[in-house]
Each structure stands twice: as C-alpha cells, then as structure tokens.
C-alpha cells in the first residue's frame, strides 16, 4: 500500500466502519446516533494524530538536517562537510518514513503535500492543516537548534544558520535564476521519486529507501547553490531566526518547490500510465 495514500485509505476504512456499524445497529435510531458519535470521535482522534505526526516528523527533519549543518559541518578537524549534511537530511526522512509513514504518510514538506494532492494521492481538505503542522514543527525545531547553537561562544546567527539563499547568500555565489531553476528541477524529480516509490505497482515496504536516498542526492547537488531547500517548511524554520536577508529571500524557497512539485506530479501522471 502506498505510504502517501495511506491516510486517505484509512479515512475510507473509517467511513466503511461507520456504514457497517449503522447496518448492524439493533437499537434503532439511538444505536445509529451512538455509532455516528463513536465514528466522529475516532475520526477526529485519527486526524489529530496525523497532524501531530507531521509536526514531529518535520521537527526531526529540521533538527537533524539543519542541526548537522550548523553544529557538525565545519567542526574543526572532524567536520562532516557537505556529504555529511546531505546524508543527515536523507536519514531524517528515511527514519521518519518508517516511524510515521503508516500514520500520516510522512510528507514533512508542504511542497510534497501539494504534489501528492496534484498527483491524486492526497485530499485537498487536509492540505492546509498538514502545511500548518509542518511549518510549526520546523519553527519549533529551529528554536531548539538556536538555543543549542547559541550556547557556543562567538555564535552569530546572521552568518546563515543553515538558511537558504541566492546571490551573496548562496554558498557558491549563484544567482537568483540559478536558485530558482535548481529548486524547481530538483523538487520535480523528488516528487517523481516519491510517487514512483509509493506506487502500488512498486515493491512494497521499500519506499523510504529511495526517497531518503533521493533527498541525499538532491543535497549533494544543490548545497553549493542554495544550501538546498526543496522544502518550504525547512527553509522557514531557520530563516525566521536569521531575519533580514533570509526572510526577504524566503519567497523563492516557497515558490520554486511548489512549482517543482506540481510539475513532478504532472510528469508522473504522464509516464505512469494506468490509474492507481
């Protein structure tokens, strides 16, 4: 079963459960209303668990990925560098996909949620709550990381704090156009990998591996260009603590991943052939 479609499948199962409960009710109207009440409570609890899972999963992604960049990338003599940071981001998604994939689908990314909706894998009425949960998780993780990092003498948040940027704030000095193109293209391919790995025709149970590895590869390609976003929540979670240039350039790291996700969903629909 598709991890990303699991939440909608679970909702369908809950509806089926309610229908069966009504059909089996022997107490007349009172039994019907009692079944409805139980169903609504169960549905509400399940949905809240989904949002909580997205909050915690995105927290883990920002703390693990951005934390590795801020705390470990340039550690004297033992720094993990670009390769280590890329691997850290991939590992956060890999581990969380196994931990919460069966609860929320493990999106951890507004662009992914939007792409899954465009790909027919996610209901529109859950988009906004998912995005809010993801952004809040990222912001809280950024705050925790800020408290940790500021405990070191000489810490200066204005140096970047793993924020995404272009021009003078690109690690390699790349232009806004370069940043826009790479974020769109890489997010597009990230969605293709996600949709393909979670297709019902793909081998079951292995989706977290290619998805985590794809995110690692994406970081290996694009850290020098933008510090790698492909995730508006990840960008927001640290940019708010930097302010200034980081928040003024944040628009690109919302716009480009969302465009890329929509293109990825369209591309997969074109190549996948049969409907799921």
Content of β-strand: under 5%
CATH arch. level architecture: Up-down Bundle
* Count of discrete domains: 1
Given the helix and strand composition, which structural class is it? mainly alpha
Oligomer: single chain
The overall pLDDT average reads 88
CATH topology: Glycerol uptake facilitator protein
CATH class reads: Mainly Alpha
Question: How many helices?
Answer: 10
Q: Looking at the structure, what is the overall shape?
A: globular
How far the N terminus sits from the C terminus, by CA atoms, comes to: 11 Å
As a whole number of angstroms, the C-alpha radius of gyration is: 20 Å
The level of helicity is over 70%
Number of strands: 0
* Low-confidence spans: 1-8, 12-26
For this structure, what is the CATH homologous superfamily?
Glycerol uptake facilitator protein
Q: How does the major sheet shape up?
A: none
Helix/strand order, N-terminal first: HHHHHHHHHH
